[in-house]
Fold these 2 entries.
Entry 1:
Amino acid sequence: MPTALITGITGQDGQYLAEFLHTMDYKVYGMVRGQRNPKAEIIQRELPFVEMINGDLQDLSSLIATLEYCQPDEVYNLGAISFVALSFKQAELTADITGLGVLRLLEAIRLVGGPNNPIRFYQASSSEMFGKVRETPQNELTPFYPRSPYGTAKVFGHHTTVNYRESYDLYACSGILFNHESPRRGIEFVTRKITNAVARIKLGLQTEIVLGDLTPRRDWGFAGDYVKAMWAMLQQDEADDFVVATGETHSVSEFCQLAFEAAGIEDWERYIRQDERFMRPSEVDLLIGDPQKAKDKLGWTTEYGFRQLVQAMVENDLAIETANIGR
Ligand code: GDR
């Protein structure tokens, strides 16, 4: 039975990936940090087949112990401070977990793995590394220009992954994933914040959505599609890096418009209020990825289009909020 360890198991991607690996008969371990982590308790109920193990990307010895216990064939490093806005407020913590955490995990893999015990490694790199984009669309060769402490930490993690692959002959891949969303997305991210608010406005529970900049454009895909690319990267003959994206871009305001339409509300602009609080010190204005390499080499395809994704997220939030009223 193949064995996988996922850091960041409590996040959206960790859950989709664990489910996907489970359908392929993997033994799945999920690394969680902290004492009585409340998110871990929820995930354990939802994904009972995952064996939770305590470990922390800030603590090398805990990573070594985790790998020794799980003896994984594959490690997926999805753990990070992943909210870009927070990274401006906790820059050092972000550098430590999102950046140095990658180095610690690779060191642990080097120590516990080795020629007789090879461990394949996936690093969750991000389109935020492209930041103030040098070319459009962005591909694997586009230079990086990060615009946040999160982006700079991800650039460090990315280069560290490539360097460990080249220095120690590790099977280490970096997936440069563009934004990917789902009904499981955390409420702090703009897509879910919007779909949740739209549902509440529709049901008369809320009167407006308070947002930051509505002009940034993102390449938004469905998280369930993206975790399949992570797995495919670890099944190749040689480790490599891949951009995973849809090749379409939409603005935050387009997302708002579609989300309101999905709930049957046309005059959406009257429900939007903008507030400085949600503006970032430096913004990433335009992201659009070129996924050709992933399509050609991994045979990766998407099942969900943008419109379908927005619709599914709004419907999910309408169902949740309706059920909450009944409680
Ligand atoms: P992002 O996602 O920063 O692209 O990173 P997010 O959904 O937070 O922001 C997208 C864009 O929307 C603008 N925006 C707002 N964002 C939030 N969260 N809340 C608001 O009220 C708001 N108003 C406008 C933002 O300024 C931004 O331009 C995500 C994360 O999942 C990263 O971890 C991941 O690496 C990248 O996607 C790919």
Entry 2:
Amino acid sequence: MRILGIETSCDETGIAIYDSEQGLLADALHSQVALHADYGGVVPELASRDHVRKTLPLIRKTLSDAGCAAGDIDGVAFTAGPGLVGALLVGCAIGRGLAWAWDVPAVEVHHMEGHLLAPLLEDDAPDFPFVALLVSGGHTLLVGVKGVGEYEILGDTLDDAAGEAFDKTAKLLGLDYPGGPALARLAERGDPRRFHFPRPMTNRPGLDFSFSGLKTFAVNTASENGDDPQTRADIARAFQDALVDTLLIKCRRALKQTGMHRLVMAGGVSANRALRERLQAAAKKEGFRVYYPRPAFCTDNGAMIAFAGALRLAAGERIDLAFNGRPRWPLDTLGAPGQAV
Ligand code: KG4
Ligand code: ZN
């Protein structure tokens, strides 16, 4: 089964073709970073319009990269949520439209399920069950995963998501959007001993997170110590260390609570090198295994949507593609309001 995947939930147009026998055949991404850079963040209306411009050309390119014709596609998967509504609608409309035109089934994919299953695209894929740490721009979730679609939310953030905390703190440090990777680069030059930030909510039981205090801590540290380049790097380092440490403490707790020994990490922040190294080192020492996607599949991409969609389509899941337009609609069948047939 060959599935076309379409991701348009935020500021990246991601397209991929996944074949259930041969694996990933092609994937392509168009990032809107340059488009939003002047505004310091994603402008939803600009995002939607850019998806409108880019989605179909990118689908053509991906089909050609995969050596496929439209007739070779057996199903369409598109991100239906969560995300920016205007951006989502572009993928939904194109996905439904193509499936209808090609006379193949379509399925809606949950963006976070896409992230969660992305590590299964790698050669060294985890078996079920596992604990998943999902860290993206909009979500921070710890999930107990027994199988595809069998998800128990173990922990959530009470305020900012991990990626959001990275982005907001980066902005405070004068870094350009998107701030997460830029802050991570700055942190590499920082002195880990100069400042110590708190590890929020780690000294009480539970698996929830709260990251908004870290950015306040960063602001206060900057106002007390100045913002020369080295101080900014030291603040970035202290922030990243605190966030990574907090995530590790909660992951360890989730593994213990569930009795599981596999940890899967996905979403944009899982591309963070310090986080990957820290979890890897802990896993080795403490006897659990950690899995994550290649960096390009940590952030938003079409491959994870094609893959999640392929699993659901293979199990028979599909949406109704009926359009509600009525080419023939006799006026005298309307009935009084509320009594239409
Ligand atoms: O999963 P994703 O691409 O989009 C959402 O679903 O939100 O995640 C984007 C988030 C942004 O907040 C971005 O700053 C963060 O992931 N991010 C990083 C890194 N790469 C992306 N944060 C820290 N270090 C990175 N290397
Ligand atoms: Zn995402």
